[in-house]
TrEMBL record:
Single GO cellular component term: nucleus
Coiled-coil annotated residue ranges, if any: none
Ranges annotated as biased composition (Polar residues): 9-19
Domain (SET) ranges: 43-289
Name recorded for this polypeptide: SET domain-containing protein
InterPro entries reported for this sequence: H3K4_H4K5_MeTrfase, SET_dom, SET_dom_sf
Location of the region described as Disordered in the Swiss-Prot/TrEMBL record: 1-23
Length: 314
């Protein structure tokens, strides 16, 4: 009962924030492309498993038009962050403090351990049983979302087990994998996190971890953005002449805080919008940028490149 009450409180808070943004949009104070077009309680995203090596991903729960606002959410936790910072005491302490704060809130801890089994494993928590995980994800995945959006999951028990079983030797640097750089410090000066080639200490700034935003996977930006392909599509196209094939490449983009695009997005909140038209069920991806990624990319652009090179060989 207590849990339900706190969720309702969250929703009410979100609604009142949403109303402000909504009014501002109606008055033309924010660009129409950020206007929340979907009715309240229309789910924006679902959590699913891409495959065992890529892990979780976010999927569109409905169609989105190019430029459409998809969701925005408050950070679950923020901490200091430095590129390659695992030896930096202040940064590590700050990250531990952020995590400890979350552990004082049982409800948030449950959600965190289900949404981020990597983090749970690192901190010695076995992933919860599927039945509990499913309930938590369905009910609470969108608890940080504003504008009344919510999210749930389509994860099956089999998928959940296959992913969580693979996590025994899970990652050591949670923030490195999941945090967003909040590039705007309180004075509005940009503090990009860059890898220092000369070994000098990298700049430190705040990093934010989000419940949904941090679960978005990477997709490379295609060199020629109009290039589109599918294996079957290629074969048919050759026979029938070129037809329009589904687009590839990152389909969303994000901003943190009020970056001049959305006045209702508070500092450190992340806001996500469609970079092109998106169909329900499509995985939402963005380009992580040039930073060292530390994984073998399995995005559709890399798959297309591989297909192209194999076709070239055959
Ligand atoms: C921000 S997390 C995204 C959520 C993650 N898939 C999960 O299940 O927790 C980033 C991690 O996801 C995986 N990942 C993201 N994009 C990927 C891609 N294009 N190819 C392979 N792995 C990817 C990598 O393990 C990466 O370190």
């Amino acid at each position: 009962m207590g849990k339900k009450k706190s969720k309702d409180n969250n929703t009410n808070k979100a609604d009142s924030q949403g109303a402000t943004g909504f009014d501002a949009a109606k008055q033309g104070k924010i660009p129409a492309k950020w206007y929340p077009q979907a009715p309240k309680n229309d789910p924006a995203v679902r959590l699913g498993l891409v495959n065992a090596s890529v892990g979780y991903g976010l999927f569109a729960a409905r169609d989105f038009a190019k430029g459409e606002f998809i969701f925005h959410e408050a950070p679950l936790m923020t901490a200091l962050f430095k590129e390659n910072s695992s030896a930096d005491e202040a940064t590590v302490n700050s990250q531990h403090r952020a995590y400890a704060d979350i552990l004082t809130d049982t409800h948030k801890t449950q959600v965190l351990n289900v949404a981020f089994p990597l983090l749970a494993a690192r901190n010695g928590f076995p992933p919860p049983a599927f039945a509990q995980a499913r309930q938590t994800l369905d009910a609470d995945l969108g608890m940080n979302l504003v504008h009344g959006r919510y999210a749930g999951t389509d994860l099956t028990e089999e998928q959940y087990q296959s992913y969580t079983n693979a996590l025994a030797d899970a990652c050591m640097n949670f923030f490195k994998f999941y945090a967003f750089e909040d590039k705007t410090n309180p004075d509005g000066v940009l503090l990009p996190i860059i890898k220092m080639a000369n070994g000098a200490p990298a700049p430190t700034t705040h990093a934010c971890v989000y419940l949904l935003g941090s679960l978005v996977n990477h997709c490379c930006t295609p060199r020629t953005p109009k290039r589109t392909t599918t294996v079957e599509g290629d074969a048919h196209d050759i026979l029938r002449g070129a037809t329009r094939r589904p687009p590839i490449g990152p389909n969303i983009e994000w901003r943190i805080g009020d970056s001049g695009l959305a006045k209702f997005v508070k500092p450190r909140h992340i806001a996500v919008q469609a970079r092109r038209d998106i169909k329900a069920g499509e995985q939402l991806t963005w380009d992580y940028g040039k930073r060292e990624k530390g994984f073998l990319c399995e995005c559709d652009v890399c798959h297309a490149k591989l297909t192209d090179s194999l076709c070239g060989v055959l």
